[in-house]
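Example S7 (structure tokens).
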């Protein structure tokens, strides 16, 4: 077996997220504590680093939006808890912004390797910028990986959580560039009779391109997404 695979676990979409218990800036945390809630679990390379600092501030500003989606934020790096505390305190002193979510101190890299957050081609110790969206049943639904020198766009992570929740509620899919509460894609028919019926519906309602691509307005979208305007949220973000 490849050494990298042995030392650095792989987490795949559709699998149950690996459990863990850890020390954080808000006390001991475990994955089990988030049962019944969605979770955005993300890693950062290091404390007191410029890109990571801008990301923590951006996540903090977006936290109320995530909370409206029954979604918690949870950060991680291999720095110590003392370092995390000093860093978030420095952010607070200089900006007045409190980091409202825990940051895990994964000193031995056990959780980072379990989740595949360390790329030995980049660094044997620092985590790259992984994002795992874990649903309320503990299943990994989305994975994003950014390099050390590119900061994450938080509105896209928020939009992805909204898309997952709306698609689940409507048993549908979301098209490219979907934003709340745009139409969603209806599952295509699986029988010839269904195909003919779908063609007729499209001709009547003008809601699709062909039998395999048609749309409907999502149900309960405002209930899930509220009145959030992602473009407005993005414009509110301060530039550093």
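Recovered sequence:
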């Amino acid at each position: 077996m490849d050494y990298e695979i042995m030392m650095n676990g792989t987490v795949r979409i559709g699998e149950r997220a690996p459990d863990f218990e850890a020390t954080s800036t808000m006390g001991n945390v475990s994955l089990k504590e988030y049962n019944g809630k969605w979770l955005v679990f993300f890693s950062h390379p290091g404390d007191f680093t410029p890109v990571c600092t801008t990301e923590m501030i951006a996540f903090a500003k977006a936290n109320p939006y995530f909370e409206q989606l029954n979604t918690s934020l949870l950060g991680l790096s291999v720095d110590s808890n003392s370092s995390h505390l000093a860093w978030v305190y420095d952010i607070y002193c200089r900006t007045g912004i409190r980091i409202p979510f825990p940051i895990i101190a994964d000193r031995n890299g056990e959780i980072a390797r379990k989740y595949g957050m360390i790329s030995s081609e980049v660094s044997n110790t620092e985590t790259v910028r992984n994002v795992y969206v874990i649903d309320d049943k503990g299943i990994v639904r989305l994975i994003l990986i950014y390099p050390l020198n590119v900061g994450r766009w938080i509105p896209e992570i928020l939009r992805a959580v909204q898309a997952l929740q709306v698609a689940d509620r409507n048993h549908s899919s979301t098209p490219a560039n979907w934003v709340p509460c745009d139409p969603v894609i209806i599952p295509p028919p699986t029988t010839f009779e269904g195909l003919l019926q779908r063609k007729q519906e499209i001709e009547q309602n003008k809601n699709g391109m062909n039998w395999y691509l048609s749309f409907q307005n999502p149900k309960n979208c405002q209930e899930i997404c509220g009145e959030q305007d992602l473009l407005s949220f993005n414009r509110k973000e301060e530039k550093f």
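Notes on this example. Residues 50-68 form the longest helix (19 residues).
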